[in-house]
Amino acid sequence: MVGALIHAGASPERIERELKKLNVSGYHLDWKKAMKEGISAMKFDVILTNEHSHKNTSHSATHEHSHSHADGHSHEHDSHEHNHIHAHDHDHHHHAHKGHTHHPHSHYADIIKLIDDSELDHGVKERSKQIFAPIAKSEAKIHDMAIEDVHFHEVGAVDSIVDIVATAIGLEELEIEKVVTSHVPLGSGHIHIDHGVYPVPAPATLDMLKNVPIAPSNLPFELTTPTGAGIVVSQTDSFGTMPAMKVTSIGYGAGTKNIPGRPNVLRVMVGELLQGNEYSTGHAETVTVLECQLDDMTGEAFGYVMDKLLDEGALDVYYTPVYMKKNRPGTLVTVLAPNDREARLSDVLFQETTTLGVRKNTWSRSILDREIVTVDTPYGPIKMKQALKKGKLLRQVPEYEDVKKAAQLFDTTFQEVYQTALRAGSN
C-alpha cells in the first residue's frame, strides 16, 4: 500500500521524516522502482537492522494484482477519495507469519500508547489507531482475551508497525477523504502461523472481513493478511465499482513475489468525485441489520435503549408492534448498523434488553448525497440538512435543535422558525 501511495504522489522522504516521530528504532526504509510483468511499480520495504536481511512482507509489500478495474477481474481494494484513491488489490501475497520475535510494542495497549505519545499529526494518529483496532478486536475474539492484552504476532513486529503508520502518513499527505474498495480476494491453500498450519485466510483476517464482499481467487497463496484486512475494513467507506471521478494520479505498489502472467502490484487511483453532472449519483452501500423481538420491557426502557444505540453509532433505530407466541403483544427492535459497528451494537442489545438472541442480515441501500448548510434568518443562523442527486438539490429540512433553540429564544412558535428557515433556504 505504501509503495502505491508513493507512486501516486506521496513523498517517501516525508514519510521517512514523519516516522522518526514514532519512538521505534532498529529499521530503515528502502524504496525503488520495480518491474512486475511489464508494469512499472514502486517497491517499498521496511528493513530491520537487528535481523539478518528481514524485509517487510506486510500489506504493501505483497499485494498481487493482475489487471485494471475495467478488466472486470477480482480486486481487493478500490479506493476513491476527495483526493480519492481508486485502488485495486487483485492478489495479495503475504508470507511472513513465522519468524517474528516479540518486540517491546507487541501488545495492543503498548502500540496505542506508542502512537498517542508520539509527535505524529493528529490525523495520522487516528488513522493508525483505526487500522490497529479491528485487528486487535478480532485477535481478542479468537483467543478469548481482553483486547488490551492482545499480543500481535505479525502486526506487533517493528516492520508491520512502521508499515501501518506509513500507510496512515501517505493517506493523510494525499488528503484522502473517501475510500471505495473493490471486492477482496483471499486466495487459497495453507499458511504457517505461530499457532500451526491454518487454511487461508488466517482466522483474524476472516473475522475482520465479515460482511465485506469477497472476490474468488484460485491462486494458491494468502492474498490478504490481517494487516491488509485491517487497512481495508478501517479505511474503506464503501465497497463496489469505481465511482464517477476525475483521476488525478495513479500509483502501482510492487509486491515481493513474482507470479508468471500476473503483475504483483496494488493499483490506486487518486482523484476527485464528479459532482453536479450527468454522471454523479447517490451511492450504494451495505449496512448490517440487527433485529430482536421483546415482550417484557417497558416503554421507558425502550426509550433508553434507542438513545444508547444511536450514541454507539447506529444509523437508525425503530420499533414495530408485533404479536408473538400465545398472541402476546410485543415489539420488534430494528437497528441499522454500519458494518464496522455491528458487534458493538449487538452487545448493546444483549446488555440493555431482555433478548436472548439477535438476528443479523446485510442489506444493500442507495443513498443520496447529503450536505449541511447554514442559512441566515431573523431568528439567527439555522442549519439545514440538504439531500442532493447529481448535484441538484432535491429537498432540505431545518435542523430540529436549531429551530427549537431559536423558538425558545425569541418566544415564538416552532413552526414559525421552521417555515422561515425553509424560505431562507429556498432563496
Short account of what is shown:
The chain is α+β, with helices and mostly antiparallel strands and 427 residues long. The chain has three domains: 2-273, no CATH class; 283-367, Alpha-Beta Plaits (2-Layer Sandwich), CATH 3.30.70.1380; 369-426, no CATH class. The protein is built from eleven helices and 20 strands.
| Biggest sheet: strand arrangement | 11-6-4-13-12
Radius of gyration: 24 Å
Helicity level: 25-40%
Beta strand count: 20
How would you characterize the largest beta sheet? 5 strands, mixed
Beta-strand residue fraction: 25-35%
Give the N-terminus to C-terminus distance in angstroms: 46 Å
Number of domains: 3
The coarse silhouette is globular
How much is the average pLDDT? 83
User: Tally the helices: what do you get?
Assistant: 11
Could you outline the blueprint of secondary structure elements for this entry?
Blueprint: H1 2-7, H2 12-19, E1 27-36, E2 39-48, E3 63-64, E4 84-89, E5 91-92, H3 108-116, H4 122-143, H5 158-173, E6 178-181, E7 184-185, E8 190-193, E9 196-199, H6 203-208, E10 214-215, H7 226-235, E11 238-239, E12 245-254, E13 265-273, E14 283-294, H8 299-311, E15 316-323, E16 329-337, H9 342-352, E17 359-367, E18 369-377, E19 380-389, E20 392-398, H10 400-409, H11 414-426
Parallel strand pairs: 4-6, 6-11, 7-10
Antiparallel strand pairs: 1-2, 3-5, 4-13, 8-9, 12-13, 14-16, 14-17, 15-16, 18-19, 19-20
Helix pairs in contact: 2-5, 3-4, 4-5, 4-7, 8-9, 10-11
